Amino acid sequence: MSTLPMTRLGAVGAIMAAATLLPDPAGARYEAKMYAITVWNAGCAGGTRNAWDDMVDAWYDEITDTGFSLFGWCLWGHCGDAFSRDGSWVNGSIANSWFADASVVSWGNDTPRLDDGDAVMIGTHGADSAGVWSGTMRINEAGGGDCNLRRDEMEIGDSDLEFLHLSSCNSMDDNQWSNWWRAFGRAHQVDGFHGFMWIGTGLISNYRNFADDAFSSAISDAWLDNHYVPNISGTDDQCPVAYAVGANQADATNRLFNERYDNVFADPGSIGWWHVTYIAGCDPANEGAL
Hints:
Rossmann fold; 3-stranded antiparallel beta sheet
């Protein structure tokens, strides 16, 4: 990486004690889920992106790779640290209510879907809607939902989710940072992109490597290291951003730079601070340079 990652801090509320590590009970396995849309032909509009599910699935396969151990030594894969496979959805009837929360909008129903996993990746078209990420769904849902999921319809982690990864354009634009914390229930981190991100078979390995690296280094570092691509379109960069919350500045910083897939902290007791890390000078399409 030619440019050092930078960070930004923001206070959002009361100060409380820092998080402690959450012990992993014997036999317990964290759960991973994936959602990806490649073809929009079921009521909502969007350009076809055939490789999107392959990218997200590469992450899903790697985070759940138990590999092989012998006499207590993990020879490959992630052995006992691997997440369990909790569901893979591609196209089908992916709808707004799957990711929206009933405490925010009456038709939300994320508890058995998005919020049921511990680590989840969503691959879909995205946009910045007046400072709010908006992700394109596949079906135009009756009963209050529509073709767009908005960040301000979400409350992530109020039942289970710790880590949300968004393979989606404009999912973590810098003008959204001061308000992304409002979507956190007891979630720990959301990772996304400032400006446009890119889809293609050449990027599949980046998603696999992200999941692999996140067992040995901070999830935030793995996200930036594997998804920062300078001059990805010839002139524009791909600009990953990692965003965590905590009870106070020390807590948010500790979470962002130390949580790994094999080192999951306890849920935040409150949200008093947000902390974001990004690549200084990264200049994407559709947004200004960071």
